[in-house]
Here is the input.
Amino acid sequence: MTDHIDENEPQLTHKYALIEALLEAQKNIDNALKDSNNPFHKSTYANLESVLLTCKQAFNEQGVLIQQKSYPSDTGVIVETVFYGHGAHLSAGKVHVPAKKDDPQAYGSAYTYARRYSLSLAAGIGGKDDDGEGAMNAVRKYKFTDTTGKNIIYSTNSVKDYLKQCRDRLKDPDNVAHQSLYKTNKGNIELVSLDASGADAESFLKLQSLYK
Here is the structure.
């Protein structure tokens, strides 16, 4: 009688070995040091460097490589944390953080946040995430600038509030100053309108038609 040979057995053996290594590494990982001040919440949180420092050595000592991959996205940033070692690899899944590419500072913050969140999730690192809400709010802010496009005169996370600002500041399509202000903020208005629904969406369409 011939024993059944599972063609996937070597792969499973390697994957189990990697899982065992990850388990041993986790035993040596404490919560990331909360050494980064958050000026918005008057508190601290673990930044990306702290998370890397906390888990990199523990995993490397078990023969595990940590790699973070980024993927293209029209709506933000996507990061995936993958563990390699012992002839196998394991992915922790992809993390998406919304961000606007025309705002380099917000986009960079979103990318750093996605990397930290993905790695913390993959490594099982706990700790209070005091900057999470602030980071998400920062990358989702709707902005209204002056005619130079450089100075923000209003920002909000509310579609309705932004629409009210448009109504107040762009009352007269025949006014040269209002036309200039609309032209500068056209891209911002179009981005907000994509998140609008119902009567708000109709109001944005009407505003855009008036300034065509």
Q: What stands out?
A: The radius of gyration is 24 Å. The first helix runs from residue 9 to 27. Helices lie at 9-27, 48-61, 104-123, 132-140, 159-169, 176-195, 198-210.
